[in-house]
């Protein structure tokens, strides 16, 4: 699908109300496979972000706004949807919900932050530099370290997940732009814009998540007008590895609650 200056690749499954799924940094739409299987009675569309997976990179600007406009362009063609975003994807979803409430009918954000501190900004800067150097072995080693730190399950196949993440970032231009967008949240936090979101939001966190700890959720919950928090026990940041069933259940619970509310109205 053509959206602005990029061609967006996506995986579609099921029938019913539209739910759009947005992955995180150094991922692609494949990370939503189990969620799509669990929500087969909804029409789920999981797309690859700019420069990730099979989506072209276009002219990346390194801003959340550009990634949010990509989502808006997608929704303008698919129609209004419940939007579910993980990590970077959640930040993008929050931006779109504040910017175009007519297109975002509901919102679930998992492992998400609306601002980052100095340590996180420095981390993104290091990764931007590393990926820019183009040493694939060094990039894979860094992704493996990042992946291991984001997973709490002791027997997870970290190497397989890291290999998949390396494949997802392609030549790295989309990764560098998305990392720059996240780093900019230190000086340009999205937090004030959360007050512009009127709909119900479910914020999901991992109990053992050190990348987006409970404090990140609390910052968002303090600004959102109508929000609930759900924590996944024994899960690190990569919830689809540590707690795939619980993650899918949290999303399904939100969708069913929303549908029940609309039926009652």
Question: Any overview of this molecule?
Answer:
The protein has 265 residues and is α/β, with parallel strands linked by helices. The protein is 46% helix and 16% strand. It has ten helices and nine strands. It has helices at residues 33-38, 64-78, 88-99, 118-133, 136-150, 158-169, 173-183, 214-223, 239-242, 244-264, and strands at residues 2-3, 6-7, 10-13, 18-22, 43-47, 81-86, 104-110, 201-206, 227-232. A seven-stranded mixed sheet has the order 3-5-4-6-7-8-9, with helices on both faces. A two-stranded antiparallel sheet has the order 1-2. Strand 1 and strand 2 (6-7) form a beta hairpin. Helix 2 (64-78) crosses helix 3 (88-99), helix 4 packs antiparallel against helix 7 (173-183) and helix 5 (136-150) packs across helix 6 (158-169).
Largest sheet: 7 strands, mixed
Strand order in the sheet with the most strands: 3-5-4-6-7-8-9
Total E-strand runs: 9
Shape summary: globular
Strand content: 15-25%
Distance N to C terminus: 35 Å
Global mean pLDDT: 96
Number of helices: 10
Spell the H/E element sequence: EEEEHEHEHEHHHHEHEHH
Query: Which structural category do the helix and sheet elements fall into?
Result: alpha/beta
Comma- or semicolon-separated keywords:
7-stranded mixed sheet; 265 residues; alpha/beta
